[in-house]
Fold:
Amino acid sequence: MYNTGREAAVAALWSEPCLAAMVRRLHRVVVGRYDEALRRHGLTVAQLDLLMTLLTADRALRSVELAGALQMDRSTLSRNLARLRRRGLVTGGDRPGAAAAVTPAGRQMAEDAAEAWLRAQRATAEMLGADGVAALDLLARRVTTPDEEG
Structure:
């Protein structure tokens, strides 16, 4: 026999839109646009974000700092750093406590990919509309704690 709490949860599961599912769909659509635009550069938007985070930092960053700044789990960060290291785009970050930095080739790659990123940025902003962009900005601010804002 179900208790009241469980019955309410089951009813909600079938009747309420799942916020996580909505965010995941939005993520797939938006990230897909950027990844497609960056594909010819051999980058994903997550990798470009990692490069740009390192480029705009005032120093090399340890993996734990990068993971926090990017809101990325450490295993995903490690995989992306390894891919960028193999291509000579970053150095370091290959062991616990080791700081990562962008190489000159990594800086050049970010600059080369900038135009593709900008096209994806503009197309996505157009798709979402000004109110959608404003809503994303508001939501991002709400889920970012003061320590993560930098």
